Amino acid sequence: MNSLEILKKLKEIAPERYYAERSRAQILATEQPRRLSPWKIFAESMEAGSAMVLAGALLILILGGFSGINVLNIASLNPTSLKAEADAIDMQIQLTDLSYQNFTRVVASKKESVSPLSAFSLMALEDNATTTTSTVVGIDDALRALSE
Amino acid sequence: MLDGEEKIVALAIGGDPKAFGTLYDHYQPQIYRFLFLKVAGREEAEDLTHQVFLNAWLGIPRYKHRGYPFSSWLYQIARNQVVDHYRARRETVSLEETDPEAFADKFSEGDLDKNLEVERVMAVIRDLKQEYQDVLILRFVEDLSVKEVASTMDKSEGAIKLLQHRALRVLREKLGESHLESSEETDDIDNNE
Questions:
Q1: Domain total in chain B
Q2: B24-57: per-residue pLDDT in tens?
Q3: Does ipTM top 0.85?
Q4: Rounded distance between C-alpha atoms, residue B134 and residue A37, angstroms
Q5: Are the Cβ atoms of A24 and B21 closer than 8 angstroms?
Q6: What is the pLDDT of residues A39-74, one digit of tens each?
Q7: Which residues of A touch B60 (CB under 8 A)?
Q8: Whether pLDDT at B180 is above 50
Q9: Which pLDDT score is estimated for A27?
């Protein structure tokens, strides 16, 4: 038998059947790596985005106590009542300033005209007025105090 | 070549395990044989064959059909696998290292002299250069055409014919066969292509 005949004879070599079956099953059970085409990348990012949006919406619903979409309609945050309250505060401040300015102007003019005896009572009144800056003093009250 | 191979390969590229299973069933024996004749023992050949088909399964989405049989691609993977195998082991296989029991049962029906002769040829093949081994196995064991071998080894058909001629000459020299017989047979093979 020459070398070429022997080489032909080598074709009889074959793997064991059990090995072949086991190897085949293992290979086919292996997961192939995923191919990422531009379209797949876009679809996956959209999936992630929509999941985040849904999670955010769920979080808002939970924090809002399941009060539906009217999350911002809380009674204490009514813009009309807030505006009225703010206007009222401004008015009080303005009136207080006005009263105080009128009172000091009247006191100054009376100081010039009254006698030294009554000046003491005026000074006492002035001191009292300055120490109680937080109390609101009207014009009528000031005139009444001066007349006394 | 497998019947309807292009269609089966296309399905396998799409990740169809059944299609790849068909390719495995058809090509696994010849890839195993190719590796068995190049490495020392049955276990190594089994491990390498498994690795070749695993790599093929993982890499098949990138496979491009260029008009050659699917086996050309598998042989290329197998050749690279053998190179990696020997690079990792950093040793050459000597005649003493071959495993006689690995192939003795395959030829148990023949007489003892024939078996010894086959073992001797296998040992000599393993002692040849990688290119000579490849061309001898692919051309004379697997009966691939010069064109198929050229595509597998990424060489021109002329280069394969030259390699085949040299490989046969070296094989016969090592086996102690006559040069005259060798050159006549090689010429016949080339003329038949």
A1: 1
A2: 999 999 999 999 999 878 899 999 999 999 999 9
A3: no
A4: 38
A5: yes
A6: 777 887 888 888 899 999 888 888 776 555 555 556
A7: 32
A8: no
A9: 93
E strand or H helix that includes residue B9: helix B5-13
**Interface contact A32-B46, CB threshold 8 A:** no
* B35 occurs within a structural domain: yes
Token pair in block for residue B175: 């086996």
Contact between chains at B54 and A11 (C-beta distance less than 8 A): no
Residues B122, B105, A21, B74, Cα dihedral to 10°: 10
- Note whether residue B47 is domain-resident: yes
What sign does the CA torsion over A52, A53, A59, A62 have?
negative
Residue B7 is part of a domain; what is its CATH number? 1.10.1740.10
Residue A114 pLDDT > 70, yes or no?
Answer: no
**CA torsion B52→B53→B54→B56, rounded to 10°?**
90
Q: Is residue B116 part of a domain?
A: no
Does B145 fall in a domain?
Answer: no
Domain parsing of chain A, residue ranges = 3-63, 75-147
A26–B28 C-beta distance less than 8 A: no
Q: Which residues of A touch B137 (CB under 8 A)?
A: 7, 10
pLDDT in tens, B147-171: 999 999 999 999 999 999 999 999 9
Show the domain range for B30. 1-91
